[in-house]
Amino acid sequence: MRNASGSPAHAWRALRPDARLALWVLAHVRQASCPEWLVEIVAAGKPATVGELADSCLIRQDPASGRYVLAPLVARFARAQPVPEPDAVRRWRSLVAFEPQWPGFEDMPRAAAAG
Question: What is the reported pTM?
Answer without folding.
Answer: 0.74
